[in-house]
Amino acid sequence: MRTERAFQELQKNGYKLDLVVYNSMISICSRNKMYIRAQEMLDLIQKSGLQPDLITYNSLIDMYATAGLMNDATRILSEMTIHGIRPCIITFNTIVAGYARKGCFTEVNDVISYMIKNNCRPCELTYRTVGDGYRKAEKYDEAIDFVSEIRKMDNSFDEPSLQRLASYTRATMNSRTEGGSVRYMVSRPKDGPGMDTSLYVYMPDPL
Fold it and tell me: One Pfam family of this protein, by short name (predicted)?
């Protein structure tokens, strides 16, 4: 509220606002889920003769994706590309995280494919976010399969990162065994020297 009052005072006193001020307001609106006010800020940017930048669009995408409003998030993504703003890894990771939280894994794979084709390679965080989405949805086998198939869809993903991701997945699986136990382990074929992609599978205890 204090920030909003300060913003209104700047407007009332005739100060020419720059993109830093507008982006700060959009970031605050994003954190507080003030969707309408954030869109108003975007409109004010355009009416003032300024051009939204990558920070502007990333804040809006994060706001909508965090709230599960993926249609709005992808709308903003389309808008930024139309205006010649190239999405970055943060942009795409935000979209991936939004879809993963909703369990929309077909859309997740589409985004990852788009990233690879457009030379914005997924990073370790990208794939970890997807794995977390599978586990949150209690799709443990799918989480295992996803990690084991990464090198097939993205052969540039390096082995040390894959090792860390596999270890993280195993550790997370073990932490999810409340009310159940680790019954067996699936061993995936090695995709390179020394690489271990074997993962524990969680099976709930019978009632």
Answer: PPR_3
- Please give the C-alpha separations between residue 81 and each of 7, 65, 75, 114, 142, in angstroms, as whole numbers: 29, 17, 10, 13, 32
Instruction: Report the pLDDT value the prediction gives residue 99, as an integer from 0 to 100.
Output: 97
Average pLDDT value over all residues in the chain: 83
pTM, 2 dp: 0.77
Cα 20 to Cα 53: distance, rounded to the nearest angstrom: 10
- Kindly state the average pLDDT of the residues 16-44: 91
Token readout for 201 is 């599978």
Asked if 186 and 199 count as a contact pair (C-beta separation under 8 A), the reply is yes
Q: What percent of the chain has pLDDT over 70?
A: 84
Q: In Å, what is the CA distance from 194 to each residue of 89, 159, 163, 172, 189?
A: 29, 9, 10, 22, 11
Q: Are 65 and 87 in contact (CB under 8 A)?
A: no
Closest listed residue to residue 57, CA positions, set 31, 44, 38: 38
Sign of the alpha-carbon torsion through 148, 151, 153, 157: positive
Going by the DSSP 8-state scheme, the letter that residue 203 receives in this structure is: E
Q: Which residues pair with 23 in a beta bridge?
A: none
